[in-house]
Amino acid sequence: KEKKNNHECEKMGGACKYQNTHGCVILPGECKSRKKHCCRV
């Protein structure tokens, strides 16, 4: 079940990473953790 919330991000080719991850290009996808953004990978 918990995978479902990251699916939108992964569909965009991103991965959910913490906001302070170096070099994170934020995508508009949803992540299950509010502390994380959808980052391009």
UniProtKB/TrEMBL annotation:
Top-level taxon in the UniProt lineage: Eukaryota
Name of the protein in question: Beta-defensin
Organismal lineage: Eukaryota, Metazoa, Chordata, Craniata, Vertebrata
